[in-house]
Amino acid sequence: MIRVDGGCDGCRGASGWGDGAWRGGGTGGEQRREGGVGIVWRNVVFMALLHLGAVYSLVLVPGAQPLTWIWSYACFIITALGVTAGAHRLWSHRSYKAKLPLRVFLAAANSMAFQNDIFEWARDHRVHHKYSETDADPHNAMRGFFFSHVGWLFVRKHRDVIEKGKKLDVSDLLADPVVRLQRRYYKTSVLVMCFLIPTLVPWYFWGESLWNAYFLASILRYTISLNLTWLVNSAAHMYGNRPYDKNISPRENRFVTFGAIGEGFHNFHHTFPFDYSTSEFGLRLNPTTCFIDLMCWFGLASNRKKASVEMIQARKQRTGDGSA
Fold first, then answer.
1. Closest of 227, 238, 225 to residue 144, by C-alpha
2. Are 56 and 151 in contact (CB under 8 A)?
3. Domain assignment present for 175
4. What does the pLDDT look like over 38-96, one tens digit per residue?
5. Rounded CA gap, 320 and 103, in Å?
6. Closest residue by Cα to residue 107 from 121, 93, 96
7. Which domain range does residue 126 map to?
8. CA distance readout (Å), 172 to 92, 94, 169, 178, 297
9. Which bin fits 179, alpha (ψ -120 to 50), beta or left (φ > 0)?
C-alpha cells in the first residue's frame, strides 16, 4: 500500500457517476447546449418508462422465487463494483493497479451498470473533479437537487463540459486495451450484461419465469442502482457534514455510503481524491474497499494509494468544520 502525503492538482471538487452523454437512451452524443435548454425527450421518455417498470416490478416480488431475489441482489453488487471499484477508483482516479483478469471483470460489470462506457465515464468524471460546481461540471450541484440527480441527463451537455473535457489528458485510458475493447463493443456488452444474463440465469437454472426474471433482475435492479449512483451527485453534495474541507460542497452522507457500497464519504473523497478507499475509515461501511483489498490478497490488484494519518489530521484542523 502506498501512503501519500501530497495533494492532487485540479482534483478538488465534486464527484459524479455516470456523468456525460449517457447512452441509456442517449443525449445526442457530444452536442452542445447553445442557449436553449435543449431537452432530450428520448431520455425523458426512457427514464419515465424505466421507473414505471421498476414500480411495477415491486408487485412481482412476492411471487418470485427466493433464489431470484438473491440473484437480483448479486447482480446489484456486481453492477455497483463495475462503477465503484472499476470506472471510479481504478480508471478515473488510478488509485490502485489491477491485473488483466480483474480489469476484464470490472469492465464487464461496468457494462452491467449501463452508465456509459469506461472511457466516457472516467473522462467526464475527471472534468467533474477539476471544474466542480461550475458549468463544466456535468451534473453541477449548484443547479439544484433534481438537476444533479437526474435532470442533467434530460438536457444537452453544456458546451463547457465538452470544451474542458477535450483539454484533459486521457491517454492513459486509451492505452488500456480493456477500455478500448469495451468502448468498441459497448452496446453489445450492455445488452448481454445488463439485460440478457440477469434475465436468463434465473429462468435457466431454477425455472423462474422470464417475466419475473426480466423485471426483477434487470429492470428493478438497474433502476435502483442508477438512483443510488445519482445520490452521490445529489444528496452527498447537499446533506451531511464536512470534517475535511468545509469550503467545498461534497459531504459525508451515511445513507449514500450504505446504498452506494462505500461512496458516500464524499467530503473525504474530494479532499483526497487519490485515496483508493475514498474514506479515512478503511473497511468500515465500505464494501468496495473490502473488494479491492481482497483482490490484492489474491494478487490481482496492487499499489493502493492511501492518504497518511498525519495528512488527514492536518487537513481536518486546517479546513474541516470541526465535526467528527
1. 238
2. no
3. yes
4. 899 999 999 999 999 999 999 999 999 999 999 999 999 999 999 999 999 999 999 99
5. 36
6. 121
7. 2-319
8. 10, 10, 8, 12, 25
9. alpha
Q: Contact, 107 vs 118, CB < 8 A?
A: yes
Three-state DSSP at 245 gives: coil
Asked if residue 299 is part of any domain, the answer here is yes
Domain count, the chain: 1
- Quick count: other Cβ atoms within 10 Å of Cβ 282? 12
CA distance 13 to 152: 18
Provide the H-helix boundaries in the chain.
Answer: 41-60, 66-81, 100-113, 118-130, 145-149, 159-167, 171-174, 177-184, 186-190, 197-206, 210-213, 221-233, 254-259, 266-271, 287-297, 309-319
Report yes or no on 324 lying in a domain: no
Alpha-carbon torsion 147, 148, 153, 158, what sign?
A: positive
Q: Nearest-CA neighbor of 84 among 312, 323, 266, 281?
A: 266
How far apart CA 280 and CA 89 sit, in angstroms, is: 15
Phi, psi of 12 (to 5 degrees): -80, 135
Q: Identify whether 100 is part of a domain.
A: yes
Cα separation, 143 vs 195, whole angstroms: 33
pLDDT tens digits, 160-187: 888 888 889 999 999 999 999 999 999 9
Query: Which pTM was predicted?
Result: 0.89
Q: Which residue has the cell 481524491?
A: 273
- Residue keyed to cell 443525449: 27
Which run of H or E residues covers position 306? strand 305-307
d(CA 105, CA 78): 9
Q: Which amino acid is at 58?
A: L
DSSP assigned state of 195? I
Rounded-to-integer distance, Cα 190 and Cα 240, Å: 34
